[in-house]
Q: What sequence folds into this?
């Protein structure tokens, strides 16, 4: 009976609601859960990619210091770095006719890319950069540094740096 009375009290109910506030899961927690799911489903290719992501995130976290959590931007940079490594390795394996190793790299890359924000296409990047170039006031290739600096800040995690660079060169030429 006293429990019912206590729940009726607004301040008590209010404190219960705030103590059970749902927080967004960190990327590391999400990866841990997905590793468990992949283990149970016996998905070796997915498991390999997830373990690589977890290792890279833990390494990034220890670089910052044990007390500090890594930011979402830092997590995205780590994931982009892993994807870039996989792409480069896959290209090398493809050139050397090592289709077995090429396939492994492509599978891991697909798993890692699933945790990145949706990447902009080349056409979207081009439209965005045309607007940015007019805002910055760039007129020639000499202004490429200014445009690249602004573009990398604004498009961080949304577009590949190589794509941004190619489009900026093309537009300023």
A:
């Amino acid at each position: 009976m006293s429990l019912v009375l206590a729940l009726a009290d607004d301040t008590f109910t209010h404190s219960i609601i705030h103590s059970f506030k749902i927080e967004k899961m960190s990327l590391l927690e999400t990866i841990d859960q997905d590793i468990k799911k992949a283990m149970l489903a016996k998905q070796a290719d997915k498991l390999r990619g997830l373990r690589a992501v977890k290792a890279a995130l833990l390494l990034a976290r220890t670089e910052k210091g044990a007390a500090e959590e890594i930011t979402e931007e830092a997590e995205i940079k780590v994931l982009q770095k892993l994807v870039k490594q996989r792409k480069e390795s896959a290209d090398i394996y493809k050139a050397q006719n090592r289709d077995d190793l090429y396939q492994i790299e492509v599978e891991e890359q697909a798993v890692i890319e699933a945790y990145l924000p949706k990447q902009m296409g080349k056409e979207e990047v081009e439209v965005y950069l045309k607007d940015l170039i007019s805002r910055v006031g760039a007129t020639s290739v000499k202004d490429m540094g200014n445009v690249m600096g602004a573009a990398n800040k604004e498009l961080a995690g949304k577009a590949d740096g190589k794509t941004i660079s190619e489009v900026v060169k093309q537009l300023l030429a």
